[in-house]
Design a protein that fits this description.
Blueprint: H1 3-32, H2 38-67, H3 86-119, E1 121-122, H4 125-131, H5 134-142, E2 146-150, E3 160-162, E4 168-172, H6 181-196, H7 199-210, H8 217-238, H9 245-258, E5 269-270, H10 274-285, H11 297-326, H12 332-338
Parallel strand pairs: 2-4
Antiparallel strand pairs: 1-2, 3-4, 3-5
Helix pairs in contact: 1-2, 1-3, 1-11, 2-7, 2-8, 2-11, 6-8, 6-9, 8-10, 9-10
Amino acid sequence: MSVLEQIVLWWFLNATWELPVCFICCWLFLRFAPNLAASIRHALWLAALTLGFLAPFGTLLGLWSDSKTVSSDLGLAVAARVNGSEAAHLLLLIFAAPALYRAFLLFRGGIVARRLTGRATPVELGTLESVLPQDKFLSIKRHKAKIFSMPSAASECGPFTCGVRRPFILIPATLFEPSKRRILVSVLAHELAHVQRHDMFLHLLAEIMLVPVAYHPFSYWLRSQLAEAREMACDARVSGPTLPPTDYARCLLDVAETLKDPKSPLHALGISESATLEHRIQALVAFSSLRFRRLSAWNKSCLLLAAFVLFWVLLSSGRKTFLWVSAVPEPRIRQQKLRVPPPPPPPPPAKPEIARN
């Protein structure tokens, strides 16, 4: 195996157990601190994903700095049982194949979103000003968001937001009918909340970090938790200031019934994601001020300290765990440092000379 293949295999093997640790720690914290605001839950799940993505790199850097060896000695970090055999390449194939497929889906989602944008028609600002409240209209101009109307042939993709530097919102043409004005206001307000929160950048960052761990079941749970918290955070910005929670929940159901296929492309954010719609409706029906609970300064300090300790534990135990599982001996230079030669035996006592007569 080459050095690059060894590094990739090392990352995958560490991510296999470090990602579940980060997920369980975040889940336990949310269990002990319920009724947090959706924006805080989204930030915590994103932090757990970031920690699970960076921790395997940290263990590799820890091994690199601990061994103090040149690149030729780095090969000792790979399991002697699988080094240079077909088993190592088989493991790499098992880990890399889902990642390549997920990267392909992410790339294709961007192409689909771009094609839909090319087929869409820009909506005039005068039309938006007559439909939206004044604060929402000013927010669109402030964030330089572009609103497009999709033709009826492409309206089955549902309303969604796309674009990082220049965000644009695609709305089906059927929602611009006079009888659906309330639904249009709720849809635009929700998609505008994505733009205000910079959700497209965070979503793209999370998808990139989820690509190499596509083989892991916990990656799909993390993705679903991120999507649910993100959509609920936008719902919290719309329900109350723009529409009452029950009316907004009814609008979400109307959007899901109006559209044929509410699933948005992978590279975009949609209002009516079917995987999270049921939980969002339940949260809106049980709307209360407790769901806007924030973390105090003491809680934030404890959370940062716990995250630092967790990262340090993963950093220090990742290398030892891998060496224990694969039964890899310590590098030669480290063995020489640990092996202290025994002290030399004391010289034998000198025999007294017998005087001769």
